[in-house]
């Protein structure tokens, strides 16, 4: 049977396993997570890098640590309630409707924790450490839904440990800071595989009764993990007692995700592969490798205290998503590399917030933000039915004692009509998604 070479030529396109790394979610552009501070979330993260009462500045702008005194410890937890439902249609290689439902609600409720601590010395030096999740995803579609050849489960966790230091250059006026980032990425992604379409594409196997689109479904799961290192720098300038200006930069981080490819192949299809005399059997379980680069992030933050009770904040951020040009998966078995282009673009995030001290115990805040998507309709997948989105945030702080503060936050994120129009392995999926996210956060801060 002289069809093995045809299988090799088609496998990358037909299965599009690289598409499994099209990770994303609805909290920030691409698959970025900003949720490392409940206090900042309550103002749509406006002025997060110059907030002198929020120890998440360890990661958001380490220079601001120099504005602290003594020791401050903070624990944040944000529950992300993501909802995404497909409202479109799909067709197979013969133009017939893809079987199955709309996939149900692909979202889930996931908790994003963060822990930060800052210690300020009397000589102007400050040191800090923070554990946070800057990128991540958790979505899952129903089994055998009509978009099963594009996405099933997506579980991405990227956890950072940031160790930083800051120094007052001009006391209470100008400080600088820097930190190193130790990061771990853990990715598990899966999708169905239309072996029937692959067999139908080859004249030698087309007479087989199961050589038809949607007639011989299999399954593929990719798992990989790695660690990487990055860095962050920042500066904080207070030209007056009322105005604070901060600039910070986070570097790209490279990962080589080493793990495994787990294939589920129907018995009749496996027999066809085994009968080929020209190559070793394809689609066998084995090792897999994928390279991933998380983007750089540039932040500019402003805060102006109009009175002792009322302040306004603003932030502008650029995320370097052009680092994600393609995703390539290398298989240890004879399957060829699977390559999928993304060609994402850099994005901007802009927010405006306000804070009002109601009384000595309670402070109220709110904010709005506009967040761009890095994706294009040409390469957008059900794993990331992304779109430009608006943020609407509310929050409050309760000073329980002089040392203990409790913060509450809520954010509603509304994407602007996300749509997909994608073809892979002969199957096409087209249409809009009905999606949004609700974020609920609580944190506690204690000063020693």
Elements, N to C (H/E): HHHEEEEEEHEEEHEEEEEEEEEEE
Subunit arrangement of the protein: single chain
How large is the radius of gyration? 25 Å
Distance between the termini: 75 Å
Total number of beta strands: 20
The outline comes out as elongated
Lateral arrangement of strands in the main beta sheet: 1-3-4-5-6-7-8-11-12-15-16-17-18-20
Q: Quote the beta fraction.
A: over 45%
How many H/I helices?
5
Key traits:
disordered N terminus, mainly beta, elongated, 20 strands, 448 residues
Brief overview, please?
The chain has 448 residues and is mainly β.
Task: Explain what the structure shows.
With about 450 residues, the protein is mainly beta. It is about 10% helix and about 55% strand. The chain is built from five helices and 20 strands. A hairpin with a 4-residue loop joins β15 (about 345-355) and β16. It starts with a helix and ends with a strand. Mean pLDDT is about 90; it is low at about 1-25.
What topology does this entry show?
Elements: H1 4-15, H2 38-41, H3 57-60, E1 71-86, E2 89-91, E3 109-120, E4 125-140, E5 153-170, E6 174-194, H4 195-200, E7 217-237, E8 243-250, E9 253-264, H5 267-274, E10 286-294, E11 297-305, E12 310-319, E13 326-331, E14 338-341, E15 347-357, E16 362-371, E17 389-399, E18 404-415, E19 419-424, E20 427-447
Antiparallel strand pairs: 1-3, 1-20, 2-20, 3-4, 4-5, 5-6, 6-7, 7-8, 7-9, 8-11, 9-10, 10-13, 11-12, 12-15, 13-14, 15-16, 16-17, 17-18, 18-20, 19-20
């Amino acid at each position: 049977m002289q069809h093995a070479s045809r299988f090799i030529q088609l496998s990358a396109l037909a299965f599009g396993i690289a598409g499994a790394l099209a990770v994303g979610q609805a909290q920030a552009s691409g698959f970025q997570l900003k949720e490392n501070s409940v206090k900042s979330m309550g103002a749509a993260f406006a002025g997060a890098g110059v907030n002198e009462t929020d120890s998440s500045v360890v990661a958001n702008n380490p220079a601001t640590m120099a504005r602290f005194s003594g020791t401050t410890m903070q624990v944040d937890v944000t529950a992300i309630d993501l909802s995404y439902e497909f409202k479109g249609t799909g067709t197979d290689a013969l133009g017939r409707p893809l079987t199955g439902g709309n996939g149900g609600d692909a979202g889930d409720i996931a908790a994003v924790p963060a822990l930060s601590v800052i210690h300020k010395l009397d000589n102007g030096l400050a040191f800090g450490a923070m554990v946070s999740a800057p990128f991540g995803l958790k979505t899952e579609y129903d089994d055998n839904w009509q978009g099963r050849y594009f996405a099933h489960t997506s579980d991405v966790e990227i956890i950072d440990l940031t160790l930083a230091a800051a120094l007052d250059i001009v006391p209470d006026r100008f400080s600088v800071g820097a930190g190193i980032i130790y990061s771990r990425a853990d990715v598990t992604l899966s999708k169905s595989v239309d072996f029937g379409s692959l067999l139908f594409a080859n004249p030698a196997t087309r007479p087989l009764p199961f050589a038809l689109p949607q007639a011989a479904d299999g399954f593929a799961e990719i798992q990989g993990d790695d660690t990487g290192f990055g860095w962050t720098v920042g500066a904080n300038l207070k030209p007056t007692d009322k105005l604070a200006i901060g600039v910070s930069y986070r570097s790209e981080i490279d990962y080589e995700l080493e793990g495994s490819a787990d294939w589920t192949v129907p018995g009749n299809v496996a027999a066809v592969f085994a009968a080929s005399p020209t190559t070793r059997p394809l689609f066998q379980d084995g090792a897999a490798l994928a390279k991933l680069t998380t983007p750089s992030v540039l932040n500019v933050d402003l805060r102006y205290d109009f009175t002792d009770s009322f302040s306004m904040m603003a932030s502008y951020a650029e995320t370097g998503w052009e680092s994600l040009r393609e995703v390539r998966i290398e298989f240890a078995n004879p399957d060829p590399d699977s390559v999928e282009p993304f060609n994402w673009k850099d994005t901007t995030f802009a927010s405006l917030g306000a804070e009002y001290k109601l009384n000595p115990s309670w402070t109220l805040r709110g904010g709005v933000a506009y967040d761009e998507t890095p994706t294009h309709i040409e390469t957008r997948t059900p794993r990331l039915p992304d779109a430009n989105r608006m943020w609407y945030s509310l929050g409050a702080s309760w000073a329980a004692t002089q040392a203990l503060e409790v913060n509450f936050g809520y954010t509603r994120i509304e994407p602007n009509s996300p749509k997909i129009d994608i073809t892979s392995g002969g199957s096409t999926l087209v249409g809009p998604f009905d999606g949004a996210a609700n974020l609920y956060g609580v944190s506690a801060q204690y000063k020693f």
